[in-house]
Amino acid sequence: MELTWHGHSTWYVEVGETTLLIDPFFDNPHTSTAPGKINTPDYVLLTHGHADHIAHVGEFTDATIVGTPELTGFVADEHGASDTIGMNLGGTIECGDAYVTMHRADHTNGAMTNYEHDVGIPSGYIISTAEPSRASEPDTTTFYHSGDTSLMSEMRDVIGPYLQPDAAALPVGDHFTMGPWQAAIAVEWLGVDYALPMHYDTFPPIEIDMEEFKREVESTGSNADVVVLDGDETFTLD
């Protein structure tokens, strides 16, 4: 599985022959890539409707748009997306070579700057190479994109022990989401091998010292490696 971070919460994920783009927002200081330069993904996964997560979804309407029914309906109405999959919390869908499970994120929601459109509950996604099961395949690779969220006990009680992600992309910028110390607890609860920070340094309120996050993870006793990517850099998750 190839994970490319394009800054903020925008990830391009390759699973076998299938490509997925999460939360397309390219007006951020960690990327030099324009939306038109991205290889058109097979699927676009949207965690919620805030502008810094769906700003460039209109550039990818040739892809299948995945999100809550409220959000995919909004994208269809506003951007003319004709191929959408509306799903909801707890559901798993097959997206080519990937299995995508939607899980809750603790955050607010709304589309357009005046928040006039209710676009459903915020979410995160667990992307895996095999369908989630209690009898999981030993060679399954699983990536968790938490969306914009605070620390929540489901990370400890459900996502970690049952969905078993190998790597997690977690917001660390504070103010609008978890900050370094809560994100570090999330890393411990999830039991991941790799922690990939996101949603930081985009705007002044979420500028942080990344060393603080590394120290917080270390202080939990977690064995996870903190992988800080440069914008447009790719991490291979085996």
From TrEMBL:
SUPFAM superfamilies: Metallo-hydrolase/oxidoreductase (SSF56281)
Keywords linked to the UniProt accession: Hydrolase
Top-rank taxon, per record: Archaea
Every Metallo-beta-lactamase domain range: 7-199
Database matches in InterPro entries: Metallo-B-lactamas, RibonucZ/Hydroxyglut_hydro, UPF0173, UPF0173_UPF0282_UlaG_hydrolase
Entries under Pfam families matching the protein: Lactamase_B_3
Annotated family: Belongs to the UPF0173 family.
UniProt-recorded name of the protein: UPF0173 metal-dependent hydrolase ACFQL7_11850
